Amino acid sequence: MNGPVSLPQPRFASALPSEFEALCPPPQLLPGENIDHYHAIQAAIFRDLAPQSAIEWLLAIDIAELSWEMQRYRVLRHRVLNTFRQKAIEMTLRRVDLAGIAPDFQDVGEIYTINNALDWQLDASAALDIEVRLQSYGFDQHAISMEVYVQARDILALFESLLNAAQLRRLMLLKEINNFRRSKVADLAKVAGA
Description:
The chain is mainly α. It has helices at residues 35-49, 54-97, 106-122, 124-136, 141-151, 153-193.
């Protein structure tokens, strides 16, 4: 009764009619991006928009591309935040470990702090120990997250502007499809009335 379920695999290639394949260049994926995910987003958008003409297909292809870009920006933003989390741990460890240390030992303490932050990233046991120690000094996960956002504010602003620009372009293209369809309906109404 409980066995593997065989679901039909989606057929992404059939979403685009063969006469319009030349309009849709192959995706330019970054390492680690999944072609099946790309095709799933593209197929869902094509299904929703149901383009009928070459112009509608061009617009739908651009909307799918922009949707993929937005997905990419969100994933990259998350990865950037994870990178800055290690830097935030390092900065917080500096506050705890280097406070009151003699100037002659600052360089050694700095190396020790950098190694601890690297251990935090690579070793789950060390991470737990470091987080408990930081929490004993009043630096909980919220304090670390605040430090992450402070350090990453410039790059986060970049991602916000990229996301906003892609969203605006996508909305404009959707509006363009609607305007194109309205003009076709108006043209048909004129022809039918004449």
